[in-house]
């Protein structure tokens, strides 16, 4: 109710100002700013969560478009970031986990297409993809990054790569990245459109706020969700591996192998987010000062979700809503209606085709994602995505979460686990949005279960997944994959292939 009321008020105020605007005066090829946060929950937004304040991020929703059903196709940093940049599922671009592996041969990043079309391009922030270095990547004229996860505050030897020169980190990373971004925006060639990719470290663990936010929310009693309790009711019908994680790296009873107070941890998470909101405010202020509000599109997104006790779990990786669902906002006065809400499912693989389309371009290769621009403009799109395919691949560094394949429609979700002796999960998202009642053994839902199992298997094949999936990194073996256009298969190292479970004749028959 808070969300709906807030958006209605925001939309009304924004509409008054929009009446005087002339959309035809907008720049044909808009400037684009893409802001990516790390591990930000879908509901870590002030207009959705009364415990926190994010006024600048909220402005993106009130004066732009809010996507309440935005998801990632793999809930993990490196695979999701690669999917954003390529428009492809992880099994196609090759970054299937957070290990130091290269991209599939021939992979193209959408900024390369923008760059070829005359855009000035810059990357500022956390890369954490492929080999996890800080080396300049294709598609970017200007480069500011750091190796791996980076550090919130400078430590001995921590550096930032600025166009090949490694300079010492000077201050709090969220603020410093914002300064680098604003400096480039101010120094760029003003005659050409620009694309800025600002990729924050925040709010990745260990959550460390800026000094000015260290006492923020001290009077807020952050609580864990009801499903965090270790009760028979909470785990009725759940896979055994989920309950077993309570006392593992990704569980509330022994989170990150420590006696962590998850409530305090949650408070620091929101404190660290406050600097991101400040950053968004500074970007919006700069756009306004330059007089280019109607010539600029700002897209704000999280790279994956985060769990604070749901089903007794911490972190991400799994296919539950809090893990795979992310915030997504698009601000484009004169292009997108203010206060608009898009209910259809969109995903990280849609970013590449959408931003290219806004620039009047088409991708230079086939993509799995789709342009959600028509949805953002409020246009009717009759054949929009009826279901979303999700995948997560087990790796030996974080063995607690098994290989997971899922199919999410607007109404139901099927989750399957590969390589373990455990139960599948089926949830009615309309009546059970918190995914507490597993319907996999329901006779009433048997036809639907068979249909979704069949469709999950089909989508894996249709998107180049093949009849097998990667499951164990091992030196000396190759992961085979097929490109979206059906080209010949190739290999990249450090994974081996294991055939997927063949469809059960009864479950998969037409």
Amount of helix = 25-40%
Radius of gyration: 22 Å
Under CATH at level 1, the class of the largest domain stands as Alpha Beta
What topology, given as strand order, has the largest sheet?
7-6-5-4-8-1-9-12-2-13
SSE class: alpha/beta
CATH architecture of the largest domain: 3-Layer(aba) Sandwich
Q: What's the shape?
A: globular
Largest beta-sheet characterization: 10 strands, mixed
User: Which band does the percent of strand residues land in?
Assistant: 15-25%
The domain count comes to: 2
Write the CATH fold name of the largest domain.
Answer: Alkaline Phosphatase, subunit A
The named CATH superfamily of the largest domain = Alkaline Phosphatase, subunit A
- Model regions low in confidence, pLDDT < 50 over at least 5 residues: 1-25, 468-510
Q: How far apart are the termini?
A: 42 Å
Q: Average pLDDT, to the nearest integer?
A: 88
Number-wise, the strands total 22
Q: Helical region count?
A: 14
SSE arrangement:
Blueprint: H1 2-18, E1 31-37, H2 55-62, E2 65-66, E3 70-71, H3 77-86, H4 90-93, H5 110-116, E4 120-126, E5 142-146, E6 159-162, E7 165-168, H6 173-187, E8 194-199, H7 232-235, H8 240-244, H9 262-290, E9 296-302, E10 307-308, E11 314-315, H10 321-324, E12 328-331, E13 340-341, E14 346-347, H11 351-358, H12 373-376, E15 387-392, E16 403-409, E17 412-418, E18 425-428, H13 446-462, E19 468-472, E20 478-481, E21 490-493, E22 496-499, H14 505-508
Parallel strand pairs: 1-8, 1-9, 2-13, 3-14, 4-5, 4-8
Antiparallel strand pairs: 2-12, 5-6, 6-7, 9-12, 10-11, 15-16, 16-17, 17-18, 19-22, 20-21
Helix pairs in contact: 5-11, 6-9
């Amino acid at each position: 109710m808070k969300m709906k009321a807030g958006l209605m008020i925001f939309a009304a105020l924004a509409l008054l100002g929009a009446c005087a605007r002339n959309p035809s005066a907008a720049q044909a090829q808009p400037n684009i700013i893409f802001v990516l946060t790390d591990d930000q929950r879908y509901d870590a937004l002030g207009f959705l969560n009364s415990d926190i304040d994010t006024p600048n991020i909220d402005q993106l929703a009130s004066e732009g478009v809010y996507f309440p059903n935005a998801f990632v196709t793999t809930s993990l940093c490196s695979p999701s970031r690669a999917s954003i940049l390529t428009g492809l599922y992880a099994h196609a671009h090759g970054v299937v986990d957070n290990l130091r592996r290269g991209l599939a041969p021939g992979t193209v990043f959408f900024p390369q297409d923008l760059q070829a079309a005359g855009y000035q391009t810059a990357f500022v922030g956390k890369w954490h993809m492929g080999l996890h270095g800080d080396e300049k990547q294709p598609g970017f004229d200007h480069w500011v990054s750091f190796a791996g996860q980076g550090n919130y505050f400078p430590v001995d030897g921590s550096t930032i790569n600025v166009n090949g020169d490694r300079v010492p980190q000077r201050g709090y990373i969220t603020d410093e990245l914002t300064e680098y971004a604003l400096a480039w925006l101010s120094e760029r060639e003003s005659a050409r459109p620009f694309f800025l990719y600002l990729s924050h470290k925040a709010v990745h663990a260990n959550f460390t706020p800026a000094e000015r936010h260290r006492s923020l929310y001290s009077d807020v009693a952050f609580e864990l969700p009801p499903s965090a309790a270790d009760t028979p009711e909470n785990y009725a019908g759940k896979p055994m591996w989920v309950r077993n994680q309570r006392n593992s790296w990704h569980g509330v009873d022994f989170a990150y192998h420590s006696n962590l107070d998850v409530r305090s941890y949650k408070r620091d998470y929101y404190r660290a987010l406050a600097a991101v909101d400040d950053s968004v405010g500074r970007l919006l202020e700069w756009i306004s000062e330059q007089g280019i509000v109607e010539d600029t599109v700002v897209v704000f997104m999280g790279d994956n979700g985060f769990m604070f006790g749901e089903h007794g779990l911490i972190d991400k990786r799994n296919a539950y809503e809090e893990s795979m669902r992310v915030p997504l906002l698009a601000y484009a006065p004169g292009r997108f209606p203010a206060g608009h809400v898009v209910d259809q499912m969109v995903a990280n693989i849609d970013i590449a085709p959408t931003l290219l389309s806004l620039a009047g371009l088409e991708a230079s290769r086939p993509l799995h994602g789709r342009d959600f621009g028509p949805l953002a403009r409020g246009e009717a799109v009759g054949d929009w995505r009826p279901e979303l395919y999700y995948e997560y691949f087990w790796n030996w560094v974080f063995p607690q979460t098994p290989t997971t394949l899922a199919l999410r429609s607007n109404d139901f979700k099927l989750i399957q686990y590969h390589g373990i002796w455990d139960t599948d999960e089926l949830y009615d998202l309309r009546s059970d949005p918190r995914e507490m009642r597993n319907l996999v053994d329901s006779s009433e839902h048997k036809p639907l279960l068979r249909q979704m199992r069949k469709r999950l298997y089909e989508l894996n094949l249709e998107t180049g997944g093949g009849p097998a999936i990667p499951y164990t990194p091992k030196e000396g073996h190759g992961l085979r994959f097929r490109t979206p256009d059906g080209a010949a298969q190739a290999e990249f190292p450090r994974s081996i292939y294991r055939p997927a479970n063949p469809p059960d004749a009864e479950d998969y028959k037409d």
